[in-house]
């Protein structure tokens, strides 16, 4: 009898060597936070990214964004510009610091922050003598944002960029790795990301001084003294040596995971692009996406829901695209600059199962259900 197993949107995928690093931590009693795996994991990420960056392994991507904004001097009453079309973790740390998010809508080529709207917002805020303190831009679903345009705006108005690469490890922009395209980048190793430590993140710093400052803040801001001495408020945000061991194993399979996720995208495109009701987000020239999640845009909310519910019926997880932050109840009173793009994406878009551990038979099952739904919709 054919038993149908549940298919998840994006589930952890171990490479095999993770347990060796974790075992080594046990064998050497490096169970406390810090230890050789943390240093090793940071070194692995640094050599993967290059660009002379310095990496600090932290407890989550959210913590990394919090620390990045803190290092940029964001504090109470400041304004921070933030891509609206994203996961809430891009914006929440702005409020941890008592600052106000100002949400910026997306452009159609990449679904990421619109350079035009960003500049309009900056000009308007400066005219009101409220120059924003930082910009949070996101490579959503692994697709790079328009880094050159955003960098130019950042330079022109002297506002630093936090580059949220939580979903984009392995993506590149004109051959430069995502995470290294701005002042400070961040990564996430949450369970659903392209590689995972079960929970974790990293801050990508431009120099060693910034990395050391991030680690200082993330380890309770202890001054140099034999006793516990503190002259600033600290956080408990460092990654543990056990989890970093999982990360070291995962780094060995990162490129393989990127290739597998891109294969998923290619499979879906081959089997579904014949339907007029479905379109795919193409890579603009010079953009390379890790295709963390394969997302499709349907012709209507109704088609999107028909597909989502048909998949759900067969125990297959899919999900509407991120609901923009300017539409979220928690942020309803925040200032926003919108153009309708992200709202439309939210209404018509769907993320399909995209794990690097999907089998061809899974993909076949998924695309068959979608085909049947679309054929019966004619
Ligand atoms: C996952 C994610 C984060 C947060 O990372 P965590 O490690 O889960 O805290 C931030 N931004 C985006 C776009 C994400 O997808």
How would you characterize the overall build of this protein?
The protein has helices at 18-27, 36-49, 61-71, 92-96, 115-127, 147-157, 208-218, 241-251, 254-272, 301-313, 341-348, 360-377; strands at 54-58, 79-83, 100-104, 134-138, 161-164, 172-173, 176-177, 184-188, 201-205, 278-280, 287-288, 294-298, 319-320, 336-337, 349-352. It is globular and about 70 Å long. By secondary structure, the protein is α/β, with parallel strands linked by helices. The protein has an eight-stranded mixed sheet, with helices on both faces. It has a four-stranded antiparallel sheet with strand order 10-12-15-13. α2 (36-49) runs parallel beside α8 (241-251) and α10 crosses α12. The mean pLDDT is 96. Bound molecules: pyridoxal-5'-phosphate. The site of pyridoxal-5'-phosphate has 14 residues, from α3. Pyridoxal-5'-phosphate is lined by residues 60-62, 86-87, 89-90, 138, 164, 166-167, 188, 190, 201.
The percent of residues in helical segments reads 25-40%
Number of strands: 15
End-to-end Cα distance, whole Å, is 33 Å
**Ligand roster:** pyridoxal-5'-phosphate
Strand content bin: 5-15%
> How would you classify the helix and strand content by structural class?
alpha/beta
pLDDT < 50 runs, ≥5 residues: none
Give the strand order, joined by hyphens, for the main sheet.
1-9-8-5-4-2-3-14
Main sheet attributes: strand count, strand direction, barrel closure = 8 strands, mixed
Which descriptor suits the 3D outline? globular
Radius of gyration: 21 Å
Mean pLDDT comes to: 96
Per DSSP, the total helix count is 12
The SSE order reads HHEHEHEHEHEEEEEHHHEEEHEEHEH
